[in-house]
Amino acid sequence: MSLPVFVIRADVSDQNPNLQIEAAQKAFATDFDRFSSFRETVPPGSISLSQAEQLSRELAELRTRHVGKKSALAACKKLIGRVQPEQRAAFGQLVQQAEGGIVQALDEVVGSLKSFVESARIARESIDVTMPGRRARAGHLHPITLMRQRIEDIFVSLGYAVEDDREIETDFYNFDALNIPEGHPARDEQDTFYTTEGFALRSQTSTVQIHAMQRRGAPVRMIAPGRVFRRDTPDPTHNPMFFQVEGLCVDRGITMAHLKGTLQEFVHRLFGPGTKTRFRPSYFPFTEPSAEVDYSCFNCGGSGCRICKWGGWIELGGSGMVHPNVLRAAGVNAEEFTGFAFGLGIDRTCARIYELDDIRLLFENDVRFLEQFR
Ligand code: DAH
Questions:
Q1: 352: closest CA among 362, 342, 365?
Q2: Whole-angstrom Cα distance, residue 260 to residue 255?
């Protein structure tokens, strides 16, 4: 009896099994190289959470490629049955060792990536309650707003309503109803910005006199703080947009004495009880008679200083007795009612109080400047 002779089939014989295993291991080593530093651990902070998740996906692909059914290693396993029987066990062991090495390497990196991802997720979701909070930066009101509120408070306590009205106007409200007909020279002084549809940005808050009387009729007592516009070139004392407050008081038997008393009371409350007023004859189309109002300087009391430019008096604004034409234009019976009106500059007063040399500073919105006036 003779033993059967084992022969490697011709199509296998030209494939050197040792070389095939080596080739499979080498291919894996090349692909695995960039993961090899993570075998023990992925140091915290060395990669991002999403990078770690991406690496895990790539590692799974690597596993399929090198130990999957279509891998070079799987081909080696198929060779086991084809090598000569006396070499089979040794060869089988070799293949197993190669596979074990590859699987271990993969498992190690999978493990360290997994714990990295876990701790990164925990870190992301945990809150350090001992960390100092971010303090919200408290804002503050603009100095012009503060000034406006002080003015409003005084007049509200005197029984005046506060009217808020539109900034875009027709010629009727900005001029005609205020006794400034077309061609009147007062229109040139208050040149403003026009739209193509016949509207214009109001050049004075006096427009609200008309709206208020149309809405409320007479008697009426109101102030109207707000923005006005003029086609002025900006300089230290001019800005094409500025703030005024209009005042209007219409009732039976209102006289110039009421006007003087009201503005007197106003400057007392705003600048102190020692403050004096002065009325200078003037001209405004919507008042007759008209007067410019000055108050004695809040800083020097009238003796002269830098703030009042050494004159002792500071201009407050214009005023006068409402022209009957204005009452009529707003539908108020001019036989029955009389009234006074005034218009004051808010930002001008603001600049004076805070000793600003340039009114434009108020409109540049530089917080470093504005936060000085809270
Ligand atoms: N509207 C005037 C101006 O802008 C200010 C003014 C003057 C308003 C006299 C008045 C007034 O109500 O009576 O220059």
A1: 362
A2: 9
The reply to whether ligand 1 has any atom less than 6 angstroms from the CB of 340 is no
- CA count, 13 A, side-chain hemisphere, 323: 18
Judge if the beta carbon of residue 284 lies within 6 A of ligand 1.
yes
List the helix and strand counts (H, then E) for the chain. Answer: 13, 9
Per-residue pLDDT tens digits for 114-130: 999 999 888 888 888 88
Contact 323, 285 (CB under 8 A): yes
User: Is the Cβ atom of 192 under 6 angstroms away from ligand 1?
Assistant: no
Phi, psi for residue 9 in degrees, rounded to 5? -60, 150
Tell me if 275 CB under 6 Å of ligand 1.
Answer: no
- Rounded to whole angstroms, how far apart are CA atoms 8 and 135? 81
Q: Which residue, by CA, sits nearest to atom 12 of ligand 1?
A: 342
pLDDT in tens, 96-118: 999 999 999 999 999 999 999 99
pTM beyond 0.90, yes or no: no
Instruction: Kindly state if the Cβ of 341 falls inside 6 Å of ligand 1.
Output: yes
155 CA from centroid of ligand 1 (Å): 17
Quick one: tokens of 192? 């403003």
